[in-house]
Automatic annotation (TrEMBL):
Record membrane topology: Multi-pass membrane protein
Organism: Rhynchospora pubera
MF (Gene Ontology): transmembrane transporter activity
Family that this chain belongs to: Belongs to the major facilitator superfamily. Proton-dependent oligopeptide transporter (POT/PTR) (TC 2.A.17) family.
Name of the protein in question: Protein NRT1/ PTR FAMILY 8.1
Keyword check for Transmembrane helix: yes
Superkingdom of the organism of origin: Eukaryota
Length: 360
């Protein structure tokens, strides 16, 4: 008990037997501090000399040992055992970390670009509750002579799209792709997310084309200052909601699975929570874009793209902007996914060796 208390407050552990204390953020900080403190230390060519417990279990409670990877080599300095470390005796986690602890941080760093690519997607996703509703408010909501459907309620078609696409993905797409690729899940998680990013581009294109038609009718019939509905059924918005739902099934669900699988064992809760922050940041980015667009397009007394009277605006330009950002985001994502290295535990490595596949 005394050792556990001291370990919790000091961050120390016995040299070969004591598990390190502290939260995931503490372990990340320890690797960073140890790497900086040893910035002049040379990392050995033979990575088997890097410090790791000799036990089968890792030094981190609830985590399997992670196999060394060659990315972010500077962080490897944290697990180089120097003569000073040997002379001190009990290893201080702020000076000497295990390979698994270093690989934990590497896994998080590799996840961050994938996480960042979800922010633009979330910005597109947030348009359902903002620009889609503003656009829908100008369209004809009547169903028959007496019933009107509120613009905000069209999000039901997004929900229906998700409900429809989940079984299509699981029961049709996965078996077909599995028969081609031989992978249990059909698509890799990175491929699944990439497909969702592409679908989100078409969602913005659908919204933009509808806006072009809306503005054409306004110009044709001189409805710029009309308070009546534009003679276009609100149900022409269904494709853009439907596409957003399909994109979510691929990207959001794929992202949650990806973060859970690729996160270090002892950091899965933190990484799953991290993946959900893209929603909030996407909303912030959407607000920022609207603010910037409004500031730039209203100079010199102009009404701008998104005025109070949308009939005199150019909401389609805003949709094109989001489509362009989504294309750029997807291209960057392709580079990121090509660079990404999947984590590999010691157990995975042993399985590969047993199957005659010792290389990554």
């Amino acid at each position: 008990m005394a050792i556990a208390v001291v370990s919790f407050f000091s961050g120390t552990r016995l040299y070969r037997n004591q598990k390190p204390g502290g939260s995931p953020l503490t372990r990340i900080a320890q690797v960073l501090v140890a790497s900086v403190r040893k910035w002049q230390v040379q990392v050995p060519e033979d990575k088997s000399f890097l410090y790791e417990l000799t036990d089968k279990e890792s030094a981190i409670e609830g985590s399997r040992k992670l196999k060394h990877s060659n990315q972010f080599k500077f962080l490897d300095k944290a697990c180089v055992e120097t003569q000073d470390d040997k002379d001190v005796g009990p290893a201080n986690a702020w000076r000497l970390c295990t390979v698994t602890q270093v690989e934990e941080l590497k896994s998080i760093v590799r996840l961050l670009p994938i996480w960042a690519s979800g922010i633009v997607f979330s910005t597109v996703y947030s348009q359902m509750s903002t620009m889609f509703v503003l656009q829908g408010n100008t369209l004809n909501p009547h169903i028959g002579p007496h019933f009107k459907i509120p613009a905000a309620s069209l999000s039901i078609f997004y929900t229906l799209s998700v409900i429809m696409w989940v079984p299509i993905y699981d029961r049709i797409l996965v078996p077909v792709v599995r028969s081609i690729t031989g992978r249990e899940r059909g698509f890799t998680q990175l491929t699944r997310m990439g497909i969702g990013l592409v679908i989100s581009i078409f969602a913005m294109l659908a919204a933009g084309f509808l806006e072009i038609v809306r503005l054409h009718i306004i110009h044709r019939d001189n409805l710029y200052d009309s308070t009546d509905y534009i003679p276009i059924s609100i149900f022409w918005q269904i494709p853009q909601y439907f596409l957003i739902g399909a994109a979510e099934v691929f990207t959001f669900i794929g992202q949650l699975e990806f973060f859970y699988d690729q996160a270090p064992d002892a950091m899965r809760s933190m990484c799953s929570a991290l993946s959900l922050t893209t929603n909030a940041l996407g909303n912030y980015l959407s607000t920022l874009l609207v603010t910037i667009v409004t500031h730039i397009t209203t100079k010199n007394g102009k009404l701008g793209w998104i005025p109070d009277n949308l009939n005199r605006g150019h909401l389609d330009y805003f949709y094109w902007l989001l489509a362009i950002l989504s294309v750029i985001n997807f291209l960057v994502y392709l580079l990121i996914s090509n660079w990404y290295t999947y984590k590999k535990t010691e157990d995975d490595f042993e399985d590969d060796m047993g199957n005659g596949a010792g290389k990554d």
